[in-house]
Amino acid sequence: MRKFNFRRRRTPALNTTATADISFMLLVFFLVTTSLDSETGLMKRLAAPEDKDAQEVQVKKRDGIELCIDARNTLWCDGKPSSVQQLSAFFEQQLSANPHMLINIQVHPDADYDTYFQLQHTLSCVYRQVREKVALRQFGKSLKKCSAEEKRWVMEACPQRIVETVQDTGKGVAP
C-alpha cells in the first residue's frame, strides 16, 4: 500500500509591518498640511444693562452720523453713497470735532457680513486713533503708556457711541 504524504500547505501571510508605517506617515502628512483657521472678530464691550431710571435722550441731527448698508452692500453715509475707505477720514474729522458723536448704523438683513465687518473695523481703528490723539494732547504720552485712571479719563472724553439696528424688510420675522 502506498503511503500518502500529505503536507499541509500553509496559507501565505501578508507582511503588514509596512502598513502601519505608511498609515502613520499619511496621518502626520495630513496633520501638518492641514491649516486650521481661527475665527477673527472684533472685540466689543456690550452696553451695560438698561437702567430702570434711564431717560430717553434726544440727539441733535448735527451730533449724529447715519450709516446704512443696503441689500446690495452699498454703504450710505447721511444719504450719500460712500465707501469704507472714504469714511475713515470723514469719521476721524467728525470725531475730532465732536468726540461725543452718535453713530447710527442700519443694516439690511440681506447685506454681506464682510461689508458690515469692514465698517466696524474702520470705526474701531478711527476711535483708537482719536483716543490716541486725545491722550497725547492731554497727558503727553500714548494711550498704552497711560495709567488706568488716565485711560478711563480718555475713554470718557471720547466714548464710543454706536447704535446698530437691522432694517425692517416688511417680510416678517424669519424662523
Strand content: 5-15%
Number of alpha- plus pi-helical segments: 4
- Rg on CA atoms, Å: 31 Å
pLDDT < 50 runs, ≥5 residues: none
What's the end-to-end separation, in Å? 91 Å
**Structural shape:** elongated
How would you write the strand order of the largest sheet? 3-2-1-4-5
Number-wise, the strands total 5
Structural class: alpha/beta
Sheet with the most strands, sense and barrel status: 5 strands, mixed
Q: What is the mean predicted local confidence, pLDDT?
A: 81
Q: Order of SSEs, N→C?
A: HEEEHEHHE
Please give the share of residues in helix: 25-40%
Question: Care to give the gist of this entry?
Answer:
It is built from four helices and five strands. It is α/β, with parallel strands linked by helices and 175 residues long.
List the helices and strands and how they pair.
Layout: H1 17-33, E1 64-69, E2 75-77, E3 80-82, H2 84-97, E4 102-107, H3 113-139, H4 148-157, E5 161-166
Structure commentary:
This protein is α/β, with parallel strands linked by helices and 175 residues long. The chain contains four helices and five strands; from the N terminus they run αβββαβααβ. A hairpin with a 5-residue loop joins β1 and β2. It is elongated and about 120 Å long. It has helices at 17-33, 84-97, 113-139, 148-157; strands at 64-69, 75-77, 80-82, 102-107, 161-166. The chain has a five-stranded mixed sheet.
